[in-house]
Amino acid sequence: MLRLAGRVAWVTGAGRGIGRATAIVLAGLGAAVAVSARTRVEVDEAAADAIERGGRAEALACDVSDWQTVIETVGQIESRLGPIDILVNNAGVLGPLAPTWQTRPREWARAIEINLVGAYYCTRAVLPGMVARGRGSIVNVSSGAGSSAAPNWSAYAASKAGLDHFTRALAVELKDTGVRVISLHPGIVDTAMVHRLRAATPEQLPARRRKFFEDAAAKGEVHSPETAAKVIAWLASIAAGDVNGAVLDARDDPSLIEQAERALKG
């Protein structure tokens, strides 16, 4: 069975959904997990769930779009748990659902700040230590929206496309350092974000796009957050081998889920 004893992981956006599930899975595998999000109540609950799995966990409030806060958060994690070995950049927002020319500029920019700049800030904060120690892994939780054009959610799509290429560029820089970075499109996952897309009005999202999510649910193609979390934990571990700089899509390649399930079962 895959074990992460002695490893320290930081999961952003961990108050609910994929982030919360990932923190719990990592803790269950023996990692000490820093659980962060903007809402302190949610991360307190997530950390408590992680501890119930037998792992160590610390809850921290952190807005990843604020560089100074990110630096302070990394300092707190290292003082309480130790040097960070695994970073899961999961914090994200959907952003405005509207034709681009009708969006509020601040709301559009905010999605970029959290989804892309926030991932950069967290990565920038942990990488010097990882490179110095010669080990570490970063999993960027991205989306198929970053590789396909769809109307009325340009901020989200642009942020995820940027995150994917950030992953590729960073992997080139990290060659031979012992640090890996991977971008994962987890597929359609049963989260509050997907619920919002299914409930969107015709003005927010065209009917054919909403039907895409409705049909996926009817076909049983919607995964649980726990399924996505297992793939993330596997990719973050040495069990994933030399995978570096890859943009992986669990919807296009179901074997990712199968490989993760096998690794976690042992």
Give the class from helix and strand content and strand pairing. alpha/beta
DSSP strand tally: 7
Task: Name the helix and strand elements from N-terminus to C-terminus, one letter apiece.
Answer: EHEHEHEHEHEHHHEH
- Our count of helices gives 9
Ends apart, CA distance between termini: 3 Å
Indicate the topology.
Layout: E1 8-11, H1 17-28, E2 32-37, H2 40-52, E3 56-61, H3 67-80, E4 86-89, H4 105-133, E5 136-141, H5 154-173, E6 179-185, H6 192-198, H7 207-218, H8 225-236, E7 247-249, H9 255-265
Structure report:
The protein is globular, with a radius of gyration of 17 Å. It starts with 7 loop residues before the first strand and ends with a helix. Helix 1 packs parallel to helix 2 (40-52), helix 1 crosses helix 8 (225-236) and helix 3 runs parallel beside helix 4. The mean pLDDT is 91. The protein has 266 residues and is an alpha/beta fold. The chain has helices at residues 17-28, 40-52, 67-80, 105-133, 154-173, 192-198, 207-218, 225-236, 255-265, and strands at residues 8-11, 32-37, 56-61, 86-89, 136-141, 179-185, 247-249. It has a 7-stranded parallel beta sheet, sandwiched between helices. It is built from 9 helices and 7 strands, in the order βαβαβαβαβαβαααβα. The protein has one domain (8-195, 222-265): Rossmann fold.
